[in-house]
Amino acid sequence: MIARSSAAMRQPPGRETAVAIGVVVTFLWATSVVLIRLGLTEEAVDPIGFAGVRFSLAALILVPLALPQLRAARVWRASHRPLLGVVIYGLLMFCVAQVGFYIALGGLTASSVGLLMGLAPVVTALVTLRSQDERATSMQALGIVVLIVGVIAFFGLESPAGGASIAFAAGLSIPFVVGGSARLGRYLALDAGRVFGGPLGLTALAMSAGGVATLALGLIVEGIPDFSLRAWLLIIWLAAVNTALTYTLWTQTQRTLRAVESSVLGDLTVILIAVLGWVVLDETLGLVEIAGLALALVGVILVQVAPTVMARRRPRQVGTDHDAHHPR
Predict the structure, then answer these.
(1) Residue 139 Cα distances to 75, 143, 277, 307, 327, angstroms
(2) Enclosing domain of residue 41
(3) Residues 6 or more apart from 267 whose CB is under 8 A from it?
(4) Is position 113 within any domain?
(5) Which H helix or E strand runs over 107?
(6) Predicted local confidence at residue 326, as pLDDT
(7) Do 86 and 186 meet the contact criterion of CB atoms below 8 Å apart?
(8) pLDDT tops 90 at residue 161
(9) Which of 62-71, 105-114, 173-182, 225-234 has the lowest mean pLDDT?
(10) Domain membership flag for residue 125
(11) What per-residue confidence (pLDDT) applies to 163?
């Protein structure tokens, strides 16, 4: 059974399967925000240590499972470029972005952090505008304007009060780190089968690099963490299900879905965070905030679907777009 599942993971899933997996992953990521918020507020745990233990534990779960794939692919004989890439990707996604994420959740509402996370696809679109097959379009410009209006409507024009300014700055760093590294993650995912033996091997290596770095940073800045039993239960669940499992599955979907499709699908997390924040954490959303959230999501979607719309308007050529993103 294990061998059969491992073999299945080496093959990119079909489109419908990839979308279904992505929806489940975004829901679990949304629940992560609620669980982390409970840990930071009710259990009063230190944010960096919380993140470091979570991702280090997830790496400890993944590495033994990924060893057969890594050995089969002889990852130690790979060129330094993909190995360096996976280390950089791990540091960005599972250290820098996560530290900012945890600090932001310590001072902002879950829906506010979710909205900031939703800006990441815009950064990705801007980063890739100068690539060979992409150029700025009027639809992308319109999407960015709509997004900015939505952010202003959601947050208002007043600056965060007191200690929330640090949390807001940390949250604002998330889309730049995640959006800027999305292209690297896509490149690694497409080559995961050949270099890393599959998405499990890629995720295990990236999470090991990021988890160890975050844990070390937490020990330096916050000291040895002291978690309650409830906090440990939260961490174990987050590490095993909402981290080890979800990030491996997401890497698998990236092998089928194009970057623009993955980004739009990932933004379901923003909506689900706002809904869960309202249902579970009693966070209220006024009409203006709801309108701002809706506008921001519309802006993100416009930016992300613009390349697809433009591609459909061009004369269709046999085997160009799909084959370029999914080499066989």
Answers:
(1) 42, 6, 31, 9, 29
(2) 14-311
(3) 118, 121, 297, 300, 301, 304
(4) yes
(5) none
(6) 39
(7) no
(8) no
(9) 105-114
(10) yes
(11) 59
Q: What radius of gyration, in Å, describes the C-alpha atoms of the chain?
A: 20
- The SS3 assignment for 160 reads coil
Considering its fold, how many domains does the chain have in total? 1
- CA angle 249/255/259 to nearest 5° reads 100
Percent of residues in the chain assigned helix, strand, coil, to nearest 5: 80, 0, 20
Angle at CA 94, nearest 5°, toward 242 and 18?
A: 50
Domain annotation covers residue 320: no
Q: Identify the burial level of 97 via C-beta atoms within 10 angstroms of its C-beta, where 0-12 means exposed, 13-18 middle and 19 or more buried.
A: buried
Q: Is the pLDDT of residue 11 over 50?
A: yes
For the entire predicted model, the pTM comes to 0.76
Domain annotation covers residue 264: yes
Short-list 122, 135, 121, 146, CA closest to 263: 121
Q: Is the pLDDT of residue 75 over 60?
A: yes
